[in-house]
Amino acid sequence: MKIVSLVLKFPPCHAHEVGKSVEAVPGASVAANGDDGRMIVLLEDGPGYAVSDSILKVHQIPQVMSATLAYEYSDETLNPEEA
Amino acid sequence: MSMDRREFLKIQAVAAAATSAGLSLPALVAAAPADRSIRWDKIPCRFCGTGCSVLAGVQNGRLVATQGDPDSPVNRGLNCIKGYFLSKIMYGKDRLTQPLLRKKDGKYDKEGDFTLVSWDEAFDIMAEKWKEALKTDGPASIAMFGSGQWTIWEGYAAAKLMKAGFRSNNLDPNARHCMASAVVGFMRAFGID
Hints:
The structure holds 2 protein chains of 2 kinds. Chain A has 2 helices and 4 strands. Chain A has helices at 15-23, 51-59; strands spanning 2-9, 28-33, 38-44, 66-74. In chain A, strands 2-3-1-4 form a 4-stranded antiparallel sheet. By secondary structure, chain B is an alpha+beta fold. In chain B, strand 4 and strand 5 form a beta hairpin.
């Protein structure tokens, strides 16, 4: 299980487009929208994609000026054999 | 309130991000219980010279989670993409945990294959080669690369060792590799470093 949260910054006038683009990224969802150009994005693992790729996809959304990591959890490191 | 582990961690993740961003917490986050299964300690990120402060979550003696330290004046609760790999890089299968030395027929050879050696052997061969280079080609033939997160005292000791001790100016930080390329990027993207 992998869980990641990001904080996005973008011009507030693009909130709608950014939100739509985020929801199109595998495993990503908008957790909170500050209405002032800040948004919290939640990412979780799933079949067919890597969370790290999804982070980069969020970062590459054209209107997004910055996407910074706030929290990450990965229980795959709990078992040395699976890491 | 009952919830499964995934839902619980998602709330923790959102709460950490909300704290970092200064956004008001949704009611669900405010009501979330503390995670007793993960012990949080404070660590510095070592991936570059910025010195971001990170909270490291340990479960069953293994690093399982990280978050930016919201109290840090350097990164204010945020990490870059390299921070995403802070916990994973500890347990990578291809992580080097022992020195490798190029060897052929059991001896150091620049054209040989990488072979696992002990730390003693690695330091011995390094000392031997340094002495040899100093003797034959002088101080300009040796060099040291330091860390971007060297403390003032470590940097001072390295400068003394290289400049006063070996009489060599060949002392550089990792910034020569890392920040030098970033400066070129800044100049091209923003026209200013």
